[in-house]
Amino acid sequence: MNIIIELIPVIMKRRNFLTYSSLASTAMLMPNFLQAFSSPKTYNSRSGKKLIVIQFSGGNDGLNTIIPYRNDVYYSSRPSLSIPKNEALRATDELAFNPNMQALRDLYEEGLVSIVNSVGYPNPIRSHFRSMDIWHTASGSENYWQTGWLGRYLDNNCAGCIHQAIELDESLGLALKGDVRSGFAMDNVRQLKRTSSNRFLKNLAQQQHEHEHETVAYLYKTMIETQQSADYLFEHSKVYESKLEYPNGAFGRDLKQVAELITADTDTRIYYVNLGGFDTHANQKNAQGRLLKQFSDGVGALVKDLKQNNLLDDVLIMAFSEFGRRVKQNASNGTDHGTANNVFLIGNQLKKNGFYNAAPNLLDLDKGDLKYEIDFRRIYATLLDDWLEADASNILNGRFDKLSLL
Amino acid sequence: MATTVQLMHLYWRAGFGCSPSEWKQRQGLSINTAVEGLFSEAKQSRPLSEAGLLLTNKRAKDLSPAEKKALKDRSRQLLADANVDWVMRMALSAESALLERMSLFWHGHFACESKTPLVAIRQLNALREHALGNFKDLVLAIARDPSMIRYLNNQQNKKRAPNENFARELLELFTLGIGHYSEQDIKEAARAFTGWSSNMRGEFIFRERQHDFDSKTFMGKTGNFDGEDIIDIILEQPQAARFIVSKIYRYFVNETPDEARIQQLATQFYQSNYDIGKLMYSIFTSDWFYDAKNIGTKIKSPIELFAGIFRTLSVSEIDAKSLIYAQRVLGQTLFKPPNVAGWKGGKAWIDNATLLFRLNLVEYLQRGSKVRARKQDNDEMMQSTRNSRKAIVIDIHDIMQELDNSSEQETYVALRDYLLPSSQNIDASKILPFVDKSTKESYIKSLILRLMSVPEYQLC
Predict the structure, then answer these.
(1) Would you call B356 and A216 a contact, using CB atoms and an 8 Å cutoff?
(2) Tell me, which fold does domain A2-395 have in CATH?
(3) Residue A66, helix vs strand vs coil
(4) Chain A residues with CB-CB distance to B under 8 A?
(5) pLDDT classification of A127: cutoffs 50, 70, 90
(6) Whose CA is closest to A225, among A262, A183, A263?
């Protein structure tokens, strides 16, 4: 297989090659019953818009990510935590990137980045779990919903598909859990393949269960689909190996995996990647800097990777965190849980490059916290309607005005 | 005399299955005798000890950073112990399985994350005390429960600035369900619970100066209501009985509600003045509870799955870290529900990752364990367990003994019916080729592993 790929330019033949090879190879390995079970959608090779969601867990300090480097209030509120003017990577007359985000600033210069400031929701919650729940479910802060916004997208738009949305993690987060469909979680393809290709389970899968109780049928169906997806994803993971340098660590590995799967024309539309560790309260500057560097370098490599295969037109990246931090630093060179924050969008189909709206007003605070200006569900509505071509008001259980982003 | 399938159904839904010796002893019981046995065990149980759980009398601001860290570590350790101890109680024949099952149900209903071991155990004691008692007492105990008070911000619910969080969830999630009260009812109820607070020692305290003693109008009634009055008025609504019974039906009987049955049970429950024990007794002794459509159709929650495996395999030691990790991966960590709405349950337990983990779970456990098959290995094995740092001790001695004189085929049928609720469709030709037949011991061991790895084992 690898030999063929080297001989045929990946970009030119990618789609044709895969339609042929993945069908042939997985079909040969599949027992008859599985072949009957597999829906045509599963092995369809097709292009389409892809969404990559990057989640910063722990509450990223937005004010030290995008720095208001001409704002005296910023410097007086953070005497030892602020980023000095001469270190910040300038973007506009007002705002600059964290010094660790050179790669992202380069993308910004190329017009591939749009940053929405002061994103949040009414009656903000400062608990990590609860606020992340709200971002995952797209509920209001007084509601407890048990399905995620992308899970409901799958419910609405994806009757027959099984790995339409992949979370690169050992377990599936709430964002990708729907009522009847859910996303697909995997730490990495090889491990997934190992745990699912157990001979005993493969053998069991050949037993008919359609006439039994619905729950039994459901378990067998999920097992069989998982085995199919594992085979499918494993085959696709071998098609293209990125030679670019991604940052060390799980996040970089995950993004590389995403780039490889997208390049192999996997029929997955949504990838969900986690970058954790933002829950710093003390000596925050270095810890946050390291994470932002991973983010920026990782996205830099990902974009370059997709670009060189002419795939960037199809891909949009969104990065968010469950909340930002308070404007004032605390006594231990950190910041405490806050409210509104910036959201990043990266791609080449953005209508508005650069900053979507003005920097947060540091003089008009709500008990020391930024006031939100844009409800995060407006961003979701935009992505759902304008990128994934879904019915946002149905999925979000309400109408949210879209932003003019895409 | 009830059939084995009926008895296993009862013991699974009202508990966590049977240990091998229970399985033997209980064959041939009538349903009534079996149910009475469960209730009489529940009556004998005692509260959990709270000794040693109050870790400090100091205020957080009076602690040095080192003390704070030590306290946090100790607290985390004790919470982990509380978690493992609870799973072990569910698995142990000496404990009341019914009481543990009911407490687990109420833990999911009054979902609450406990941050310190003392309030976690205190809340669990409240759930245990009233689990089969009166629902009003249970709701009142939860309204006065320090962990819930902290979780739903009733500490901040004061006359001058009411916090509606507890009142809202009391109505929406704990008693009536959405659509059966107004926003104004929430505001008025919140006023009635002002000053219901907790102190440093993790005890309920009524802070009179924060309480709003003025008149409130709640669900059409006006008076100087306090929290208890609010609970009384809520429970005057037949909807409260319907709401609870519906949840109990979906948890204990069938995920698909049977509205006529629920209405009939709700009327009884209301007329019994919310007697939970009576309701459960009535469900477990009803003919329809044993209808085929109710048997083997519920997906075990992760905790039910663990408790059942541990009970069957007489697991006596397990490393807390691994168990809690597995709970997290499978989506149910005790004392840490995802939010106040609790665990969604049913099919939501299953996605590709959790299903694969569940199907491989018994194999993981066996790989990480010392399996004890003969009584005399005991000391030697405990010794080697310590030395080899194996995390879990499994004992299949009892099962071996039960099957001593059985042929291979009889052993297969017996184990299949013991481990799987709806076993008639299991195809032996898919199982037996994967079983090691070299000795009786290896046959039983590998057969258990295989039967616990089929998808049907996820059901009860």
Answers:
(1) no
(2) Alkaline Phosphatase, subunit A (3.40.720)
(3) strand
(4) 129-130, 133, 142, 144, 146, 163, 170-172, 174, 177, 182-186, 192, 195-196, 198-201, 203-204, 206-207, 209, 212-216, 218-220, 222-223, 225-226, 229
(5) confident
(6) A183
ipTM, interface predicted TM-score of the complex: 0.91
Average pLDDT over residues A210-227: 87
Q: Is the pLDDT of residue A15 over 50?
A: no
Q: Average pLDDT for residues B365-391, to the nearest whole number? A: 55
- A177/B351 CB distance under 8 A: yes
Full DSSP string of A224-252 = HHHHHHHHHHHHHHTT----S-PPSSHHH
Q: Is B434 within 8 Å of A203 when comparing Cβ atoms? A: yes
Q: Residue A119 has which token pair? A: 């994103």
A32 CB-contact burial (10 Å; exposed 0-12 / middle 13-18 / buried 19+): exposed
Which spans in B389-438 are helix H? 397-402, 408-419, 428-431
Q: Which residue of A has its CA nearest to B297?
A: A215
Residue A41 has pLDDT above 50, yes or no: no
- Per the model's pLDDT, the better-predicted residue between B20 and B193 turns out to be B193
Point out the least confidently predicted range of A147-151, A252-256, B65-69, B282-286.
B65-69
Q: A219 and B458 in contact by Cβ < 8 A?
A: yes
Q: Rounded to an integer, what distance in angstroms lies between the CA atom of residue B409 and that of residue B18?
A: 22
Sign of the CA dihedral with A248 first, then A251, A255, and A257 last = positive
For residue A138, the distance in angstroms to the closest alpha carbon of chain B comes to 15
With CB atoms and an 8 Å threshold, state whether B434 touches A200.
yes
What pLDDT score does B403 carry? 86
Residue ranges per domain, chain A?
2-395
Which has the closest alpha carbon to B338: A356, A234, A219, A177? A177
pLDDT at A228 over 50: yes
Residue A42 CA: distances (Å) to CA of A35, A47, A75, A268, A314: 11, 13, 54, 9, 20
Helical segments of B253-351, H only = 259-271, 276-284, 302-312, 320-330
- A197 vs B286, residue with greater confidence: B286
Best mutation target, B356, B424, B458, to test chain A (most A CBs within 10 A) = B356
Rounded distance, CA A146 to CA B338, Å? 9
Contact residues, chain B to chain A, C-beta under 8 Å? 113, 168, 173, 255, 293, 296-299, 328-331, 338-341, 344, 347-348, 350-357, 359-360, 422, 425, 427, 430, 433-434, 450, 453-456, 458-459
- Lowest mean pLDDT, pick from A4-18, B127-141, B332-346: A4-18
- With contact defined as beta carbons under 8 Å apart, do B108 and B127 qualify? no
